[in-house]
């Protein structure tokens, strides 16, 4: 079968190649891929991957083979799911606990943003408990996860401060539900009940100082590539507050709520209450312009690859 394989340090980075089809485990359905989205974590270190590696976490397609244990949607169902790799292939084995049927009125591209970006935003907000009227700070707010987090938090009644890296990234964030948009973490003032932090380094350190007593900071990324350094005596000024790490794969495997959460977000998209923010699509046969745009911070939302028959 065809798959997008890494080319290592020589070559374009990703190209279509031939690989063996997957052998699904008993709790996995075999899905024929129609779309996937690109995530920073997948493409950040492309040149360092072993040549011939199949990456890919977001899977949209049609069930070609029902899971052997009887779980999950039947053959022919249009689905979206999360895998821990090998998703950029014509056929993907997807655990049914992280697989959901897509409503007819939700396009493939819209569903493709949900496994990584959607489930990360959803879980990060859940971790904070999101009390009524909460003040929420989102860093990396113009990115794929950030744009979904702004919408989900504001829909839950939170006042959301969106932190962006550059003024030109401001466009559209207030319309998504941000109460205020600030350029750079130093421009954020006040204290926050919940902080979603994905830039790392100085952003993480500064964000930790903005945490309200009893508040929660969820750290899930390091887009800056900088190491974070939080003062070991930080807790002295933030009694009862805590910092939690989030890795979406672990959370989905551990809690077995992937299907339910994907279904909820699909319903929100279907009813027009969640905008997936797909701003770029491209055939998977020529992915590198989109990969480069993502690495260059030029994608205002999510980039999606479509798989042509
Ligand atoms: N732990 C997990 O399970 C998990 C799950 C999903 C994502 N993540 C991580 O979370 C982060 C956000 O994911 P995403 O999909 O939203 O990424 P994205 O779409 O690429 O957005 C990244 C955002 O970070 C900002 N940023 C600030 N400094 C940056 C720098 N030096 N280099 C690159 N970006 C910088 C960008 O700001 P500008 O708007 O100014 O460009 C951009 O809005 C990534 O680091 C990703 O790897 C982790």
What's the alpha carbon Rg, rounded to whole Å? 19 Å
Q: What structural class do helix, strand and pairing data support? A: alpha/beta
CATH structural class of the largest domain: Alpha Beta
Number of helices: 9
Helix content: 10-25%
Q: What's the mean pLDDT score?
A: 95
Report on the architecture of this protein.
The protein is 24% helix and 28% strand. With 309 residues, it is an alpha/beta fold. Strands 3, 4, 5, 6, 7, 14 and 15 form a 7-stranded mixed sheet that branches. The chain has a 6-stranded parallel sheet with strand order 10-9-8-11-12-13, with helices on both faces. The chain has a two-stranded antiparallel ribbon with strand order 1-2. Helix 3 crosses helix 4 (144-155) and helix 3 (114-127) crosses helix 8. It is globular, with a radius of gyration of 19 Å. The two termini are 12 Å apart. The relative contact order is 0.16. The structure holds NADP nicotinamide-adenine-dinucleotide phosphate. NADP nicotinamide-adenine-dinucleotide phosphate binds at residues 39-41, 116-117, 120, 140, 142-146, 164-166, 169, 198-199, 220-224, 246-248, 294, 297. The site of NADP nicotinamide-adenine-dinucleotide phosphate has 28 residues, from helix 1, helix 3 and helix 4.
């Amino acid at each position: 079968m065809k798959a997008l394989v890494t080319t290592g340090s020589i070559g374009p980075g990703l190209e279509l190649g031939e690989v063996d089809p997957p052998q699904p485990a008993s709790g996995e359905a075999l899905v024929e891929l129609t779309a996937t989205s690109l995530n920073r974590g997948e493409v950040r270190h492309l040149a360092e991957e072993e040549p011939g590696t199949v990456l890919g976490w977001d899977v949209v397609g049609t069930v070609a083979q029902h899971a052997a244990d009887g779980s999950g949607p039947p053959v022919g169902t249009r689905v979206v799911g999360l895998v821990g790799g090998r998703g950029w292939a014509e056929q993907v084995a997807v655990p049914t606990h992280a697989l959901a049927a897509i409503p007819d009125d939700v396009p493939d591209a819209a569903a493709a943003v949900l496994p990584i970006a959607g489930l990360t935003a959803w879980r990060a907000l859940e971790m904070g408990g999101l009390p009524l009227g909460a003040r929420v700070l989102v860093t990396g707010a113009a990115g794929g996860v950030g744009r979904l987090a702004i919408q989900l938090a504001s829909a839950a009644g939170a006042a959301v401060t969106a932190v962006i890296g550059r003024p030109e990234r401001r466009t559209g964030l207030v319309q998504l539900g941000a109460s205020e948009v600030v350029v750079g973490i130093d421009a954020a003032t006040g204290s926050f009940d919940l902080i979603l932090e994905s830039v790392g380094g100085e952003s993480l350190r500064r964000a930790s100082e903005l945490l309200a007593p009893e508040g929660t900071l969820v750290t899930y990324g390091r887009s800056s590539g900088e190491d974070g350094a939080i003062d070991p005596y930080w807790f002295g000024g933030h009694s009862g507050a805590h910092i939690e790490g989030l890795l979406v794969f672990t959370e989905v495997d551990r809690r077995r709520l992937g299907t339910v959460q994907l279904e909820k977000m699909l319903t929100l998209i279907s009813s027009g209450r969640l905008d997936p923010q797909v701003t770029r699509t491209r055939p998977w046969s020529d992915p590198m312009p989109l990969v480069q745009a993502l690495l260059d911070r030029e994608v205002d939302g999510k980039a999606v690859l479509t798989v042509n028959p």
